[in-house]
Write a structure and sequence with these properties.
The chain is α/β, with parallel strands linked by helices and about 300 residues long. The protein has helices at about 55-60, 75-90, 105-120, 135-145, 165-170, 175-180, 185, 190-210, 215, 220-240, 245-260, 260-270, 285-295, and strands spanning about 5-10, 10-15, 30-35, 40-45, 65-70, 100-105, 135, 160, 245, 275, 300-305. The protein has 13 helices and eleven strands. The strands form three sheets. The protein has a seven-stranded mixed beta sheet, with helices on both faces. The chain has a two-stranded antiparallel sheet with strand order 3-4.
Length: about 300
Amino acid sequence: MSKKNKKKKKGIAFFSRAKSATPEPMVAEEVTAVGDSGVTVVPAGAFDYSKANEGQREAIEATDGPVLIIAGPGTGKTYTLVQRALNLIVNKGVKPEEIMMATFTEKAAKELVTRISNELTSLNIPVNLTEMYIGTFHSICLRIIKENLEYTRIKKNFRTLDDFDQKYMVFQNIRMFQRIPRFSDVITSRFAWEQAKEICSYVNNLTEELVDADKLAASRNADYEVIGQILLVYQQLVTDNNYLDFSGIQTEAYWLLSNHPEILAAVQGKIKHLMIDEYQDTNYIQEQIAFAIQIRTKHRAASGSGARTA
């Protein structure tokens, strides 16, 4: 994303390739929106974001090309993203299913859905937001997996593991890990439950960094070799039991898109606008998934408050 035309407006910094001057608010004589029940005509002035400050308005109206929004806590990032989505749906005629909005907590995702839904309801625009790719990275990845389950290692009726389930699964099978040569050189805890927690920490970090377990197990470094063997045992366990753990959700989605170009192309064809909230919090695999989806998407926006966002 380009950093040209950097501006600071009331707590929000805005970056865009396409914008060189602050645009005037959009005024339409009539707005047409497409919902489940057909075409809805919205009277002029019905969509109002006059409460937005100059920087927010600039971000809301910059719908063409890449956009980077940097703002501190309490400066209205969520408000800006909501209004930006509404502008796309109401003023630009973008279908909800053509928008992907990713954030990092279920609470933030629910807030986005609630705000957008309430705003559209107040405008009498019938839109089914379940069609929209909006939620946490994990929930969006899980949706992509479920829509293409037959192309993954996962079978129907798979079980998702939360943090406790994952540790307990490893704890129940701890002897399989303890049989690995030099296991105690790497996993230093004495008690089985603490060992399970150490193992899960290694597994989750390596999984989210897309580390190849076979290559790690073949390493000349003795400790790396042990960690690689641990990862291989773990992967075999989740495969045999048809489990999908939290970090594995993103990994499965990544490999699904990487190994099946036709599925990636289908997702890319659906998503016309990509927005990522709190971009500075993305990890490696989340960035790779976002990069893959946005290759054919010219319209993408990221918001955040940390130095990494810039």
